[in-house]
Amino acid sequence: MPTLKTTPKRGRPQTLDRDAVLKIALTSYWTGGPTRVAISHICKEADVSKPSLYREFGSDDGLKAAVLDLYSELVLGPFHNILTSNEGFAQQIEALIAFTVQDRKSLGIPSGCLQVAMRAHREDLGKVTGNKVDMLRSQTLRNYEAWIERAKSRGEFKAEIPTQAAALFCDAQNGGAMRMQREGIPNEIIKQTLTHAFSTFA
Amino acid sequence: MPTLKTTPKRGRPQTLDRDAVLKIALTSYWTGGPTRVAISHICKEADVSKPSLYREFGSDDGLKAAVLDLYSELVLGPFHNILTSNEGFAQQIEALIAFTVQDRKSLGIPSGCLQVAMRAHREDLGKVTGNKVDMLRSQTLRNYEAWIERAKSRGEFKAEIPTQAAALFCDAQNGGAMRMQREGIPNEIIKQTLTHAFSTFA
DNA sequence: ATAATTTCGTAACTATCGGTACAATATGAA
DNA sequence: TTCATATTGTACCGATAGTTACGAAATTAT
Question: Beta carbon of B5 within 7 Å of strand D?
């Protein structure tokens, strides 16, 4: 939803661009790690004063939570779309792998996954962000489960493994791939591990 | 190697028990996370003053490195022993899974894996510990690779996947299992994911 | 113009944590 | 007994990071 023009308010006009700050914060957290980037650093990058940022997001916790929402919309959404597409199971798997191992550098996208990183640092996050991470994780597992159940009901799922365990398996593969990517392991090798992992399903 | 009795030295006798401190630090880092436990906390737990601890280990970095060495000896060693045992491949896999999903609570062992945790917080560690984490990771992968090559040469390895990718796959499964364990997922479910993952090999 | 209102940013405050100065203490040697 | 030596622990230092008090600045309403 675009920032709809409200009638001009009283007081000094706001110069802080919420979306711009969020985008910069997203990139910073994604690249440098959500617990390693200081508020002051984001302020410098976005050319915004600290009180301005606090006025907009309330706290470090609030900013991280807002960033996580944005990440969910930008990355997790498209990922979920693959799971619910009309393609066959095997093609969906192929699409998932392609999405995961796409060349980030050429696209200007940081390597790794912010959700995975936030889960790894779950205990260092604030209350709001921490809860959001938990919710997102549950949702991710539910998405996998629905995807697998659908494939099972279609007879496209070949493995004999309970849906819950299969969903956890998928999540582990994705997490592993994201970690390998951050460690600099070539996408081609990562693709081999993912292909092997999912070859057990279809 | 036991602390062999040296001839009584001059000066005030040392009351600090290095091994006791290391053990307490290991448990603290393992349970609470290597970057979340403060030096002062370990001092309180071990009933040791900060300067004493610094005299013994040099720095936060030095203590963490020493703890990682102990962990390697206590946990990673036995794990590696399974990979080099004289059992068949399938039995080794079974042993690995059993080792991973053994009931920690009843054994008084913290859940999760300190090596996995340290890798997740690699960037927050000091120089010495960080390098040690890297070395340990390389060694882990080499161990898996040797294990897989051996199984391949015996004809016990059924999957068509390059050894390097297979080793990374193994490491990812183990890491995933350790993370699930920390998140409180029942060992029975974790076992299902591991069994499925390794069923592709033998 | 003047007042009311809202946002702006400098400059501090506070807590935490890794690290250390230093004086007291406890031993062996002379 | 006295000196040399080595360890102990209290209390402090310095850096970092999240957070905020407060006065200046910019705009609308009267």
Answer: no
pLDDT category at A6 given cuts 50, 70, 90 is: low
- Pick from B33, B161, B176: which is nearest to A176 by CB? B176
- Kindly tell me if the per-residue pLDDT of B136 is higher than 80: yes
- Name residues whose C-beta falls within 8 Å of residue A11's C-beta, 6 or more positions apart in sequence: none
CA dihedral for A146, B179, B80, B132, sign (positive or negative): positive
B38 touches strand C (CB under 7 A): yes
Domains in chain A with CATH codes = 69-198 (1.10.357.10)
Contact B197 A196 (CB under 8 A): no
Percent of chain B with pLDDT over 90: 94
- The token duo for A189 is 């090798």
Residues in chain A with CB shorter than 8 Å from the CB of B196 are 159, 161, 165-166, 169, 200
Q: At A45, which amino acid appears?
A: E
Nearest Cα of chain B lies from the Cα of A177 at a distance, in angstroms, of 8
* C-alpha R_g of chain B: 19
Rounded CA-CA distance A107/A115 in Å is: 19
